[in-house]
Write a structure and sequence with these properties.
4-stranded mixed β-sheet, about 150 residues, alpha/beta, CBS-domain, globular, 6 helices, 3-stranded mixed β-sheet
């Protein structure tokens, strides 16, 4: 089984000029957990997860949350608003793992586990063609007939 058979070719992504607000909007709209970041040539240059976006927006609250009692999040909204227009390239994972469309599904699983990700960008001929999720890999493995 190859990644190509299970890739989501309609997967959302961000351009390198996107902001944290753009990432929030797209992650929410598509119910995604990660978004590849592409340059103008369609090449993957980064990956941003919903956790990275949260950490970028609410870093001050996370520091304060180490105290007991944990503070309310609302007073920290001004920090988040101050950062929402910053470029995603400031917060993304640079040079993330990217799978070839010809990679075996097992390679996708190993790569996701090694990097603690549940979504990976997939490329064909050096350009982004979609993503594969850990749940897609589970489906692929479960669909495979067991040897008799």
């Amino acid at each position: 089984m190859r990644v190509l058979e299970f890739v989501d070719t309609h997967a959302p992504y961000l351009s390198e000029t996107a902001t944290l607000q753009d990432a929030v909007d797209k992650l929410d709209l598509y119910k995604a957990t990660a978004l590849p970041v592409l340059n103008e040539d369609g090449v993957v240059i980064g990956l941003v997860t919903e956790r990275q976006v949260f950490n970028a927006l609410f870093a001050e609250w996370q520091v304060a949350a180490r105290q007991v009692p944990i503070p309310h999040l609302a007073p920290f909204r001004s920090y988040a608003h101050a950062r929402k227009d910053s470029l995603i390239t400031e917060w993304m994972m640079h040079d993330p793992p990217v799978l070839s469309e010809q990679a075996p599904v097992e390679e996708a699983v190993v790569t996701m586990l090694q990097h603690e990700l549940d979504t990976l960008p997939v490329q064909g001929e050096g350009k982004f063609i979609g993503t594969i999720r850990l749940i897609d890999c589970c489906q692929a493995i479960l669909e495979t007939n067991l040897p008799d």
